[in-house]
Amino acid sequence: MKSILFPLLLLPLLAFSQKLQRNVFEYEKLKSDNFVVCDESTNKELESVLLKIEENNSTTAVEISKKIFDAKQDCFGTFETYGFALFRNGQWLEGIKVLEEGIKKFGSVPELIKRKSEMSLEMAELGTGQKNIDGNSVFNSGNSNYDEEQFKDENLKSALADLEYLIKKYNRTEEIYYAAKIQQLLKDYDKSNNTFRMLLSDPKYKIAALYNIGDNYIALNDLDKAEKEFNALLSENPKEGEFYNKLASIYELKNDKIKAEEFGAKSIFYKNVPEDTDLEYSKENFELLQFFGTDENKPAKKLKKLQEISNQNNPQYTIDVCLMILKLHANHGNGLEEKATETLKKIGKQAIEKVNKLFQSNVSTCTITNLADIMASIKDENSWALMKKYLPYIATMPMTLIPPSVPEKMVLFDEERGITEILIIIKPLLTQVEEESNNPMAEMTGFGQYVYYIPLEKVKKEKLRKIASSLHYTDQEFSALQKKLSK
Length: 487
Description:
Elements: H1 2-15, H2 40-54, H3 58-71, H4 76-88, H5 92-106, H6 110-126, E1 130-133, E2 136-139, H7 148-170, H8 173-185, H9 189-196, H10 206-219, H11 223-236, H12 241-253, H13 257-272, H14 283-293, H15 299-310, H16 315-328, H17 336-347, H18 349-359, H19 365-378, H20 381-390, H21 406-413, H22 415-430, H23 432-436, H24 450-453, H25 461-470, H26 475-486
Antiparallel strand pairs: 1-2
């Protein structure tokens, strides 16, 4: 029975699956000069829309940009901004349509073409199953009318056509890179390699280009050339774990088990040890990484080991091990990360340079909190500058991340300056409450902003008002702040 019923159950899905068809423009035949640029007043209005998009408030961005678009369609900027706002709001095809209307009206405007290529590429990357709305992944219920693979393929081809025109016209490196990546995704590996080679003289893209050329050789099963590319990359970047990982895969394909295991271990080591430490790969250091990074050892045993290392009177080695523990983020809640944090605080100034560097790397938000705690204790001005720079990012952090307690640590570092910096960041946020009340995505945006208010709850109202007044807070804004603090 199953062999008969199963195909029949699929028939309705297959029958109603549509093919996406993207418009193809012959850009070289369209007018390509004398594009009408928006006046200064309109550009300022459009900048306010882009700010709303950055703040993950696309609903308001759509409302504002539509009013501007309806009132003024004699310059291409209104088409670009309104189309982008629709796209960020999850209205993909509607946003694309607005951009295409702009191209039909104004010609081969590079800003419109580039924006369209970026949107097409995102559609290809995410497919029919999800959208990125206001910094959060919103998943489709599975009712898409489009065939998944054809949808992705069509958008890739559309983006590539846009980029190939821009490359021919302007020869800009960013567009060359994305064109090469799309050719790679379309499995045109030889053409992709030829495009990537155009970037080998550019310091910004050279490493990425060589990496992808090596990757393409793996796809072509030309393993000797792939090995050569990744060995060349390692010679210049001996602590890059991903290069070891690629070589491990190559040796696995070559049936060289010994080298595959060796390079696999090196990949694990360098991916988990902070780059700016002095720890080099060795059997002993790899075993130490495994000791702290797995659940095989009880917390008490790990704490004892860290204490033994601290007692060796080798501060640089202790700093490196503590930072390794913090980057691993494999001991949350068992006391080891707290012990490593306290150890670095006791070491003090000798540790701060490496702490600052790890703070700037791609680590978990919990690790950011621990590092900020160390920075608040040691009170180095370079640390202050880094925390100040990080502070605004929390406002737009997706709800999938636990926001770090950087505001609290800044107040601990310097109460007066910390309160001031927090109040600067939250001032524009306090005016968004009413705007976002009708936004169905409101609960998903600004999820982590509560960490701004936690340290302010402990500040006396008179002191808070004094600092707020110096920052030109209105009575309405200060009242909104008090409501936040009373929740």
